[in-house]
Specification:
Blueprint (H helix, E strand, L loop, with lengths): L1 H5 L1 E10 L25 H15 L3 E5 L9 H10 L4 E6 L5 H7 L5 E5 L5 H6 L4 H15 L3 E7 L7 H10 L4 E6 L18 H11 L6 E5 L18 E8 L4 E3 L12 E4 L4 E4 L16 E3 L1
Parallel strand pairs: 1-2, 1-8, 2-3, 3-4, 4-5, 5-6, 6-7
Antiparallel strand pairs: 7-12, 8-9, 9-10, 10-11
Helix pairs in contact: 2-3
Length: 300
């Protein structure tokens, strides 16, 4: 169905939000009130979508997230079947809080563990949960011992923009391969915290220069909206077959192709779990109608 409507024939990665439920309620979480919702994929539904994406769109990898994917009771089944039955790469994005037992169990089947960090120590804990910074670092250390490749993600805000470089250096010491920087978007919980917005866009220029001249060995990738002029408004070309980097499925089955549309109910496609098929449900405010551009990422 996606191919029929858009001409897209290749989608490299599926971002699969297994559930809304989380053991945190972060100040900037794009899910907002949906953190209280019970919607979730069962293991069978999740594998059904993963298999469809592999067969119809040549999808090579799956990133499992939530909410917090490690609180999903059927996470092990989803991971093992994705790797063993479908032969696909598995990444997990987590807050890293008290996941030691499950991580140890799943380590042989996880290609990359992404841990979300929002700065150093107290700054991170204030954004997420008391004690969560220490837990995240402990998880990174355990992953290294288990031979699991790791990376970190950070949403840049007014509170932590001065801690990007210190965090990058900490991640280097823990052996993380990459630090990925996201721009704060005004959705979910972030709507109630406008103070988190970086008020001076020139601060992004200073951040980039600081990172560029720091001599870091870790790869730093950033959202191009983290610039004085913002990211270029690039939309997919019209007409003809083409591929995209990713598509994201939320716990209800809504499918979103642009990161900038995630959390805004701007999806044009749904995965109907019971029928195991993707359907097109256009609206006047969906991401295709509005030509919402995807996020542009670049290496520092």
């Amino acid at each position: 169905m996606i191919r029929d409507v858009t001409g897209i024939h290749k989608i490299r990665m599926l971002y699969l939000q297994l559930l809304y439920r989380c053991n945190f309620s972060c100040l900037h979480c794009f899910h907002g009130e949906r953190l209280k919702h019970a919607d979730a994929f069962t293991a069978e539904e999740a594998i059904g979508l993963v298999r469809l994406m592999r067969e119809d769109y040549g999808t090579e990898a799956v990133t499992l997230l939530g909410g917090e994917p490690f609180v999903h009771k059927e996470l092990p089944e989803v991971v093992l079947r994705t790797r063993r039955e479908l032969g696909m790469r598995v990444e997990i994005c987590t807050n890293g809080y008290r996941i030691e037992r499950r991580l140890t169990e799943l380590a042989p089947y996880v290609d990359l563990l992404r841990v979300s960090l929002e700065g150093v120590a107290a700054t991170h804990d204030a954004m997420r949960r008391q004690g969560s910074h220490h837990a995240a670092l402990s998880t990174l250390n355990l992953a290294r011992e288990l031979g699991v490749m790791t990376a970190a993600t950070m949403t840049v805000t007014s509170r932590n923009i001065g801690e990007v470089l210190p965090l990058a250096r900490i991640m280097q010491r823990f052996g993380a391969r990459q630090l990925k920087l996201h721009c704060l978007r005004p959705v979910g919980n972030a709507v109630r915290h406008p103070e988190l917005v970086v008020g001076d866009p020139a601060a992004y220029t200073r951040l980039r220069e600081e990172l560029r001249t720091a001599g870091l060995s870790i790869e730093v990738v950033l959202d191009e909206d983290l610039s004085e002029g913002g990211a270029p408004e690039v939309c997919p070309p019209t007409g003809g077959p083409r591929g995209i980097e990713r598509i994201e499925a939320d716990p209800r089955g809504a499918l979103t192709m642009s990161c900038k549309a995630v959390g805004k109910d701007a999806h044009a496609f749904w995965y109907e779990k019971a029928e195991g098929r993707i359907v097109h449900r256009p609206t006047a405010t969906d991401e295709l109608t509005l030509a919402v551009p995807d996020v542009v990422y670049a290496r520092v």
